[in-house]
């Protein structure tokens, strides 16, 4: 940012740019305003990945509008999360894209080559946690990561997890997805030496209180090296894991 | 109870007992009323173990009074839980008894021989959970059980638990005591084939919410064969485990 | 487990087993991996009862797949909990099984002879608690227990409970199922001398907060010898009671 | 109120009262403003009992000031609740009064003769609930009620309660005071045919959450004819019971 | 109860009753067991009003069965609460009864003459609270009370309440029904000198948390003489008010 | 109010008004009682704006009835909030009015000229918050305010907010509408020097707990000059902002 | 801000400022960094009032350091909130200032003349709410407002509030301070036509949950024109009221 | 682990190791059991960093014992968290170590050279958050990281944060520490392109509910690339950041 302002200032000093033009330049909006949304077009430059569309609470029309505008500005791939089947059907009338019904994710454009440091391992406690895990997996793949899926390895049958220890040992980041008591995060956190992203899910009933139990469990993990995202936030975990997996020396 | 009433009725029929005496007998109170407390003296007969004195919220004088009265009626041993050091000092002026400061338990009288089915194993997640575990251990011993202590085997270093698997395998009941995320109960529950009593502790900080996190975790355990008692309720776990360990064919 | 490794090592020493074969043996997976699930086939050996299928959050196809695979490995009976009618209909196209719509339980295979220590008594506070009680009852029966049902004996009409005291007195384990204020567990806990498993239900409205009131009540029971499972967790109570009812001397 | 205005209006009509005097009369404040408090002096007329001083959060000086002013206006007896020992000592320097340290209640003036319809029975679950029960008892006595104390009759030993059924049967109102799981209210509610005021107490630990468990229990009572006051609100229960016990035909 | 046992004993003594008959008599069940329910037939004698059927969680068939059996035993009127329209339709195929769809209450049999001490005034904060108020009103009428309805007098327009002060002043009991912030109970409690039963409703949104806000408000009422029932529990309030309104000297 | 009573009293003194007429006048109800509602017709005089109809929990018939009566008394415009489409259709059969489906608001009568001190700026964190923002906007416009909409300026892309700083700087009041973590209120609060009304929305999932997260965030804002209304309460924010924007010297 | 950048640019264009100087100017920090704090010195210009020191969690040394630095930069008056007596004593060793022990507020420098639109009325429900009210009052006075205190006018004695209606009617803003059930805000909100800032206090016990009850009450106020600040946040209310009371036409 | 077993097996095959020795080796405990603790001595090998001593809930004697034993096994440096001053004094009698009273951290042994990928930036919202930030900073330094402290840059004065944007831009990981509304995490998350670890603190009062508000805020962050640790868990954040900052290609 700094350099840009310097260039503008130098141009003004050199007389090659008027004060008013400079003013506009400095205040130029790095987003497109389409009324109901201000789409962030500089995000790839600023944060290394394009804006993601959070589908819930937006009408199908709004989503189509945002996709149109992002495509116009050459943004690709475009990730749409919490994207219900019926809204996806509306988008399908206009654009080709990949859709996962269980993960409720749509991807417009090509999934890039994996270019991260290593592999992201995604483990789930049970079968019912798979939709959230898939949201994480598709997000991570969409952001250029190699993903290894390790499903149904909950701690009630600890041998299933231990038998897959080798997978875990090779991970550069682990995403631990679990509902109910969410103990998976702690056990995994104690086995590996890489960062662990814990995703509590709303799987369970009664005193699971829609994921609260797993959330608290994971926040209180007695294992070190574990950080937590929101309940059912597979996207957030995949995104965070990707950032970690794309660390660079500065 | 039924038989007793039958005997009374038969005595009345036989003329060997007057109606008024029968009335008194039937209504006879199986407890001693000392104003601030109605001490249950039939409990040993009714439930196999004497009444236990819950020390919190009672004055030292009240506790001494109840102990006096129980001793008078030949109750022994007497267990006093949540019994603070200063109240214990008051009791010590009058009676000999064993006191554990960390477990805040006092025991008046002899600890009986162990006569249960097998051994109760008490496992803790960490060192800080030991006071609650000791409350459970002393309670169980006081009720006639053999206890095996297995402390600091939390799931963040799962090898510590696995290395002690043999202890667990020999248990007739396991008491799993853990704070923070309370994952110990689930992992233990998945390893053993005997009943597991889970005790959440208030060990932790922040989002452990004074034991709520561990409590919810244990209630949502994905392992079967786990039941839970109140936060920090070592006594309750020891008592329940003892009941299980003294099961009889009926 | 220990013995098995010794045998393997002795075979290696004797030259009758290669290092690589030994390595495989030690690491051999006691479960079948079918992608979305890792079915635990050793559980009966390890824990005395086959794996149970938690139906919620699994598709009908996944359930059918798991059942197929368990039957292939000779597992029987197979218990499917939280099993909705429409999923059950899918399974019925392929397998014969018993289904209880109110308890939402399916049982594939024969219910075994009761071989426990005694009888499990299941009491409910009201009529609305019966579905949860039936989940417990069917689970317990499926695991080889004799069950005695004592429904609608809530404490607001304490004489109904007292009139059935004899049933309670003969129990080896009592399961107390109640919603609203869940006081049944405390009153029963004070009457019997066997272990009591308390199941809070979500029956109620307003400040029952979907079972929270009953849950807290039961956790805070002033009666000793009571342990609690998750809200509406009839299965968990039946399973725990069965473990207790099958205690063995070790 | 209506009549009073009529009299004023008639006086104005008759010319015996000026408009300005009438205005003052109508607007006359039925309370004394002493800056930090507006003491309600008409309450006895309006509501049948004098204002009560809630001691918590008031300085000793403020309490003395309010008492002074109430005595000046002939209010008696004066009830001071949540009145700590050290503040009471300050008041004792100036006025004679009765003080109960456990109930933290002070009473300035004579306790009146009991003139209610019948007897208020106050039952507690345990010994630790007695301070709250005493707050209720002293409040009720101070408001002209006969009180019958029935302490330590919790439901874990239901025979203690049943043995005292006669006391309950003679009550015109019952106040049920209990902490932990608060089941006393439901059982009592099912036994009697008079109104029951339930007082949850903060007695307990862990998942009692400072009285929340007992509060929810009592609100969800499956017995009819039970209403609830705030946690530890012995005063409120005593006051409500007194209102009921002083019902009049209108 | 006492007298009855005496009579039995005297009969046994006189030889006019055998021991076995006496035993049966003493243990005779004052309820009818129809499997899914144990209908309390002595309640009218014991508590002055017949058992009430809580419709939620019971099937239409179960409700019809209970009604049948109660009618057989001459119980009338029969009150059915939380009684949905479709279940009511089922009952209508067999019995005549009055049904209020908004209050979800059915009444089988005649509403008795009002025979209470005075009038029960039922006030609501808004129009949306009327269904709960009607549940209270119909319950109270069904139990023999005169009811005065005072709807939509919430405190945001305090003059509406003050203008109706006369109604309140004539009440023997007031039921204050309000959602949102539930302030009505406090303001009414400060105006009247009779008992006030407060009913929080789930009317509101956001931070009303389904009635929690109103519930807490009412429990913390700064006015004395207010007791609270469960959220939306119009029935409980009507029942409690009726008990108060039928107080008798003992 | 005072003056009015004086006039009445003077009229009585002068003999031009009888005592009974005066009594009626003083007690005259400033509202119309239509059974299910007491419509406040003096509110415009008392509070500067007509009563608003809260549509939830009222039947379409009740709403039509209230509108009829308000129109009869010349009240206009009439605002109906939380007004569902199907109820609105019922009203449309009888009256012309403007309806916003997303804001669920109906306005009967003309929207007045803006006559406030300045402009109310309404900012949202995201697109999904727009319905709540529109409820605020329409309310404010209906009450005579100029509104400037600034949507989708959430803090995750702070440059979008900063680029619109000029809008904010010109506001006389800002309404900040945001769900999820609700950080918008704090950032806006730190940028402007006018009052900020924060509206948490229920936009989000998992640990947003239906708006609780945003609500707590806003209440704990580290910026000064921020006050909060209920979750999703666009109406309340618009009303409050209007009151501020119509401040007058007194 | 815009103008400033324009001036800098024009200076650069005119050659009277070098690019590097311009760069520094644009990036010049409007705050002083003293390591543990970055004191905001431009706030008076930006937001019309100087930064306020939140005393809690800061050491006495840190507070003295910040005051020193602010005085150096000519900031006055300086408000220090949540300022404990012992920390205040430390500051007193170095600077003269006014201290209110009950409000825990310190003011360094002169309190300015009142220059707001009108008067801020601060009402409390009870005597115990006064410390929070005083925090609001002193804050408002310190920011140039006339304050009218109206203490102990809680709704349980509504006549005390109504008798002071005239005070309320003259307010330009009302701050309603109340604990327990917090009903004051709703009643006041229904009486006045100016903005109302509601401050819940932690006054109360049991189910007041440290102010939660009052907070929810106020957020759910059925009166319009009420917005809420954090529990016990007298400062925030005073600040917000001052902003409203200093509204200007733009 | 795999290789080790292979080596043992090969040794057995080669006859250079007996079966019994092999059995011992395989089962050899990688921890030292000192009764109250099982100190994990292989953790450095397994997870790249030595075990950390959680000081809370351990006696000074226990801590000294664990330190002794770790030093014996050559573990260094040793980090002791939540280490109170008085316990630290006990350790100081025996060992030299660095102690930070505000962060409550003790470090035995030398802090290693920083060898991570880049710099960890630790930002706080306010001055009161510094102790938690220091816990994170010292932990990270102790684990070989370069740390850049950026304190008191809360969002209420967003220019303070923006002015330090350059620091943020150079971070390899950012730790955002904030209490109250915790908005810092979202704003920082939107500015940087590296992973952000959010630490909610218990700084605040009232509705901050001891850090719950900040916790929820951070979990619901609308910015991507943010993961959260427990309230006040500076250690956890420092540890997680270090793991990320020591990522290696595998």
- The name of the CATH architecture of the largest domain in chain A is 3-Layer(aba) Sandwich
> What distance separates the N and C termini of chain A?
17 Å
What is the average of the pLDDT values of chain A?
88
Beta-strand share of residues of chain A: 15-25%
The largest inter-chain interface, given as chain pair and residues per side, is: B-C, 45 and 44 residues
By CATH reckoning, the class of the largest domain in chain A would read: Alpha Beta
Please outline the major beta sheet of chain A.
5 strands, parallel
Order of helical and strand elements of chain A: HHEEHEHEHEEEHEHHEHEHEH
How would you describe this protein?
The structure is a homooctamer of 250-residue chains. In chain A, β5 and β6 form a beta hairpin. By secondary structure, the first copy, chain A, is α/β, with parallel strands linked by helices. Helices cover 39% and strands 18% of the residues of chain A. Chain A is globular, with a radius of gyration of 21 Å. The longest helix of chain A has 13 residues. Chain A contains 11 helices and 11 strands. Chain A has 3 domains: 29 residues; 78 residues, no CATH class; 127 residues, 3-Layer(aba) Sandwich (Rossmann fold), CATH 3.40.50. At the B-E interface, α1 and α2 of B face α1 and α2 of E.
